[in-house]
Amino acid sequence: MFKLYTEDVNRERVIELAQDFLSGFTVTYGEGFWEGKREKTLIIETTVPVANVQELARAICVENDQESVLVERFDSGYSEFITRPHPEKVMKQAAKKNAIVREVPA
């Protein structure tokens, strides 16, 4: 997993760039400091190949006229999508185990 940290300027254009380089990502907003100055921060999280992340970081530098973009890499080696099972499948599995199923509010 990678996180890119950049100043939150040209937000929509940076998101468009991310769409060009990344197949999937999450955007969050924060506040950070660069060279002692407070600034709004845009954080992009993704699990795509490192080459795509590096190219996006370079493109953001150019677009925002920034000296650098921080790229943080997390090497846990584990990520997966956990999907919600279909209710019928849950009921069948529970019936096989003689389990009681309670609905959990959304």
What does this protein structure show overall?
The chain has 106 residues and is α+β, with helices and mostly antiparallel strands. The chain has a domain at 2-73: Alpha-Beta Plaits. 34% of the residues lie in helices and 27% in strands. It is built from three helices and four strands. The chain has helices at residues 11-21, 50-64, 87-96, and strands at residues 2-7, 26-34, 37-46, 70-73. A four-stranded antiparallel sheet has the order 2-3-1-4. A hairpin with a 2-residue loop joins strand 2 (26-34) and strand 3. Helix 1 (11-21) packs antiparallel against helix 2 (50-64). The longest helix has 15 residues, at 50-64. 15% of the residues are buried. The mean pLDDT is 85.
